[in-house]
Amino acid sequence: MSAEYQVNGNIAVITLNNPPVNGLGHATRAAAVNGMKQALNDDAVKAIVITGAGKAFSGGADIKEFNSPKASAEPSLHTLINVVENSDKPVIAAIHTVCMGGGLELALGCNYRVASKGAQIALPEVKLGILPGAGGTQRLPRVLGLEMALNMIVSGTPIPSEKLAKTAIFNEVVDGDVLEAALAFAAKVADVRPLPKVRDIKIDYPNYEAYLQFSRNTVRAMAGPFPAPLKCVEAVAAAVTKKFDDGIKFERELFVDLVQTTESKALRHAFFGERAASKLPDVPEDTPTRPIRSVAVIGAGTMGGGIAMNFANAGIPVQILEMKQEALDKGLATIRKNYENTLKKGKLTQEKFDQRVGLITGTLSYEEIAQADIVIEAVFEDMGVKEQVFKKLDEVMKQGAILASNTSTLDVDKIADFTRRPEDVIGTHFFSPANVMKLLEIVRGKKTAKDVLATVLGLSKKIKKTGVVSGVCDGFIGNRMIEQYSRQAGFLLEEGCTPEQVDKAVEKMGFAMGPFRMGDLAGNDIGWYIRKRRYVEKPQITYSKTADLLCELGRFGQKTGAGWYDYKPGDRKAYPSSIVNDMIIQHSADLGITRRKISDQEIVERLIFALVNEAAYILEEGIATRASDIDMVYLTGYGFPLHTGGPMFYADTVGLPNVVMAMEKYAKGRHGDAWKPAPLLAKLAAEGKTFN
Ligand code: 3HC
Ligand code: NAI
After folding, report:
1. 160 CB contacts (<8 Å, ≥6 apart)?
2. Nearest CA to ligand 2 atom 40
3. Is 526 in the pocket of ligand 2 (CB under 6 A)?
C-alpha cells in the first residue's frame, strides 16, 4: 500500500505513504482514491483527513514517473483531486514538514487545510522546467491573491506555513501534532454545509491586466533560455481571465508541452544527478560517519580563506594555520573584508556576521590544531610543500582525524603515502571562489576508507556543496576534461578564429563565459605553468602555442590589465585587442596555416565534443561513477549551461552517433588524432545507446 486508510471515531484518515517524500506516484494516487471511496461509502464516516507519513505531507507528483505511461495512468492526480473536491463529506488536509507541487495542489482540492508551523509550502515545478499541472496555477491565486501566488509559482521558492497563516490558504496553523489538530478541526466542521471549495473563490484584482503585463516583461527578462517561467505567468493569467474549468484545461495543455521540452528534461536530470552524486555503489548509505565538530585549514591564501568561510557559514569552528604571522593576518583580514561586504549589501545580519567571524581563528602552531576532526590543506601546489605538511599532520593530528588536500593537480595517493594513515587521506577539491562555487570534487584515493568518504560526502551537503566523487588522475574529472576544451580553443585561434568569436559562440549556447574571457579572469599564467610541466611530462600532447606567446607578452589577464582582451582600469569589460589579434594572425602565418572562416557550429562542436570524448574515457576508467556525476561537475563548477543538462546529457540529446560523425569529420583536419572516439563513446553510439 502506498496510502493507508483508518477510521478514527467518525473521521476517516488517509495517510499518504510513499517514502521518502510521499511522491504522488500511480500506486499512491490509486490507494488515495480507494481511501476516498471507502470513506464516502461508509455512513459512519462524517469527515475525511488526508495526511502524509514520515518526513512530508507530500513532495508532489512522482518525478521519477515523468515520461513514463504511469504518469498519466488513471487515477491521475487530476482525478484524485476531483474526487476530493467533489466529496460530499468535508475533506481536511493535515499538512506537515513538506507540502510541495502536486502535494499542495491536492491540499488545495480539499475543503480545509490545517498546517503545522514550519511546514515548507511551495509550487516548485518551475525549477524542473514545468508548471503546476494539477490546478495549482488556478487555485493558489484564489487563496493567496494574484501577486503572492504568481511570485510563488514563478520563483518556486518555499515559504514556511506560519508566514501564510493570515491568508486563506490555511484554516489553522498549529504548534504540535498536526493530525490531532486536524481531527479536532474535522469534528468541528463535520456538519457544516455548504462545503467550501477553493475553485469557488473569486479573484479580486481590478487592474489585473497591467499587473500581468508588468509580470510578463519582468519574467521574460529573467527567464533566459527556459520557457517555463513565462508559461507560469500565462497559466496564472488564465485564473483571472478564464472560467475555472477552462483555466484548468489551459494549464494542462501548457504542462504537457513543457514536460516534453529538453530544458525540463535537463533540469530533472540535474535534480536527480545532484542526489545520485552523493551515493557510491560500494559505500552503503548506512556507512557510519565520523563526527565533524571542528575544522582546521592549512594555508590562508586564496583558497584557504574561502574554504574556511564555508564551515563558519555552517556554524562549525575553523582554525587556519599559516607559516608566518603576516600571511595569517592578511588571510584573516581578507575573510573579514568578504563578510563585511556581505554585511554592507544587507545579505548578512550583524548577529550572523559576528557569529561567523568569531568562528574563524588563526594559529601558527600545529599543536593547536591537533584535535580538529578534519584538516584541509590548501598550501602551494608543490609536492615538496605538500610532503612537509602531510608528514607534520601525520605526526600531530589526533587519531581518526580526516586529512584532506585541496590539490588541483597532484596525485592524492602519493600525498596519502606521506602519512602512516593513508586510509584517512582524501582530496577535497574546492573551486574558486571556494565560498561561492557549488562544486566540491571529492578525490578518492586508492586507500581512502569508506567512512572517510561517507563523512566528506555528508559534510559537503552540510556546507551546501554538490559533492562529486572522482578517482585519482591528472586533473580529476573537471580539469582533465577542460584541458581538451582549452586545446581545441587554442587550435581554433590558429586556424582562423579570434578569441572574441570563440567566446561569443559558446556564450550564445549559454556558457556564462567563453574560454578566453574565463582565462583572463582566472589568470592565464596558471595554465602556462601547467603546460610547461606537461611539455616535460607528456611531450606527445600538442598544444597551440598562442597561449604561451600571450603569457610571454606578460598578458596574464585581468590582474595584469591585459590578457586575450584589453581592459581599462577599474573596468572588467573585455575589449578586443589588436595586439593579440595580430599576434594570432602572425602565429598562423609562422605555422604556414591559411586562416579560414570557422562557423559557430564548428566552434561549439569542437569545444563540447572534446569535453565529451575525454569524459567517456573518464567514465570507462571508473574515475567518475556515472555520467550524471560528470554533468554535475560541469553544471556546478564550470558554468556549463543548465538548460542543456551538462556535457553528457547534451551529447545524449544531440545523439551519440551524431557526435561520433562530427568527430570523424574533425579527425580529417589538423591534430586529427585528438578526435579518435573513446571506446565507450564509439560502443554506445554503435548500439544506439546514451550515456545517461
Ligand atoms: N518525486 C519523486 N522523488 C522525489 C520527489 C518527487 N517529487 N521529491 C524528492 N524525491 C526523492 C529524491 O529524489 C530523493 O531520492 P533518493 O533518496 O533516492 O536520492 C529523496 O526524495 C529525498 O530528496 P532530498 O534529498 O531532496 O531530500 P530533502 O529532505 O533535502 O528535500 C524535498 C525534500 C524538499 C521534497 C526535495 O526533495 C524537493 O524539493 N523535491 C522536489 C519537489 C518538487 O519539485 N515537487 C514538484 C514535483 S512536480 C509536480 O508535482 C507536478 C504537478 O504539478 C503535476
Ligand atoms: P595561495 O598561494 O593563494 O595560498 C597558499 C597559502 O599557503 C599561502 O598563504 C602560503 O603562505 C601558505 N603556505 C604555504 N606553505 C605553507 C605551509 N607549509 N604551511 C602553512 N601555510 C603554507 O594558493 P591557492 O590559490 O590558495 O592554492 C592553494 C591550493 O589550492 C593549491 O594546492 C592549489 O592548487 C589549490 N587550488 C587552487 C585553486 C585556485 O583557483 N587558486 C582552485 C582549486 C584548488
Report:
1. 117, 118, 119, 120, 121
2. 432
3. no
Query: For residue 186, what is the domain's CATH number?
Result: 3.90.226.10
Rounded to whole angstroms, how far apart are CA atoms 632 and 47?
A: 47
Q: What is the pLDDT of residue 526?
A: 85
Give residue 434's pLDDT.
Answer: 96
User: Is residue 351 among the annotated active site residues?
Assistant: no
Give which of 105, 141, 131 is closest to 228, Cα–Cα: 131
Model-level pTM?
A: 0.95
User: What was the pLDDT predicted at 611?
Assistant: 98
Backbone angles phi, psi at 302, to 5 degrees: -50, -50
Asked if residue 447 and residue 497 are part of one domain, the reply reads: no
DSSP 678: P
Is 182 close to ligand 2, i.e. is its CB under 6 Å away? no
Residue of 125, 251, 274, 602 marked active site = 125
260: which 3 cell numbers?
516534453
Same domain assignment for residues 522 and 575: yes
Same domain, 208 and 316: no
445 in the same domain as 373: yes
Domain count, the chain: 3
Torsion of the alpha carbons at 421, 422, 425 and 429, rounded to the nearest 10: 160
- Give the residue carrying C-alpha cell 560502443: 683
Is the domain of 406 the same as that of 498? no
**What is the residue-averaged pLDDT of the chain?**
97
Q: What Cα–Cα distance (Å) separates residue 554 from each residue in 262, 527, 532, 689? A: 43, 14, 16, 47
The yes-or-no answer on residue 105 being catalytic is: yes
pLDDT, position 533: 85
Among 442, 472, 502, identify where a domain stops: 472
Determine, yes or no, domain membership for 286: no
Ligand 1 neighbourhood includes 462 CB (under 6 angstroms): no
* 393 and 345 within one domain: yes
| pLDDT value for 537 | 86
Using an 8 Å Cβ cutoff, are 128 and 264 in contact?
A: yes
266 within some domain: no
> Residue 690 and residue 692: Cα distance in Å, rounded?
6
Domain boundary among 433, 457, 472: 472
The ligand minimizing its distance to the Cα of 56 is: 1
pLDDT recorded at residue 66: 86
602 CB less than 6 Å from ligand 1? no
- Examine the domain organization and report whether 450 and 518 are in the same domain: no
Which of the residues in the chain have pLDDT under 50?
none
CATH number of the CATH domain containing 359: 3.40.50.720
The catalytic position among 4, 65, 74, 105 is 105
Cβ atoms of 323 and 367 within 8 Å: the answer is: no
Q: Is 136 part of a structural domain of the chain?
A: yes
What is the span of the domain harbouring residue 21?
3-260
Return the ligand number nearest the Cα of 271: 1
d(CA 116, CA 112): 14
Atom of ligand 2 nearest to the CA of 324: 11
Closest ligand to the CA of 412: 2
**Residue 381 Cα to ligand 2 middle (Å):** 6
Q: How far is CA 25 from the centre of its chain?
A: 24
Q: 261-294: per-residue pLDDT in tens?
A: 999 999 999 999 999 999 999 999 999 999 999 9
Look up residue 576 and give its three cell numbers: 578586443
pLDDT computed for residue 1 by the predictor: 65
- Do 456 and 552 sit in the same domain of this protein? no
357-379: pLDDT as tens digits? 999 999 999 999 999 999 999 99
The secondary structure of 603-658, three-state, reads HHHHHHHHHHHHHHHHHHCCCECCHHHHHHHHHHHCCCCHHHCCHHHHHHHHCHHH
Q: If you measure from the C-alpha of residue 385 to the centroid of ligand 2, how many angstroms do you get, rounded to a whole number? A: 10
End-to-end CA separation in angstroms for the chain: 31
- For residue 283, the CA-to-ligand 1 centroid distance in Å is 22
**Grid cell 514538514 in the structure block, residue:** 97
